[in-house]
Amino acid sequence: MNQIPKRVCIYPKDIQRITGKSYRQSTRILNQIRKSLRKPKNSLVSIDEFCEYTGLKYEHVIIVIL
């Protein structure tokens, strides 16, 4: 059986696809999420954390990312 590999973390390019904002603005959104969660600068942000921060549904986000 071939299973589709699922990613756990989200990147600026994904946020760009979801929101339609520029890459630079998407990077700022990721930094705002890290700051609100008190994460270090280099840490990754999960898709769940992104959904919780933005209020978007996980199912809608996954469809756009994959």
Describe the structure.
With 66 residues, this protein is mostly helical. The protein has one domain. It has four helices and two strands. It has a two-stranded antiparallel ribbon with strand order 1-2. Helix 1 crosses helix 2. It is globular, with a radius of gyration of 12 Å. The two termini are 19 Å apart. The relative contact order is 0.19.
| Number of strand elements | 2
Shape: globular
Percentage of helical residues? 55-70%
Task: Summarize the biggest pleated sheet.
Answer: 2 strands, antiparallel
The first-to-last residue Cα distance is 19 Å
Strand content: 5-15%
- Mean pLDDT across every amino acid position: 91
Short description:
The protein is mainly alpha-helical and 66 residues long. It is built from 4 helices and 2 strands. Helix 1 (12-19) packs across helix 2 (23-36).
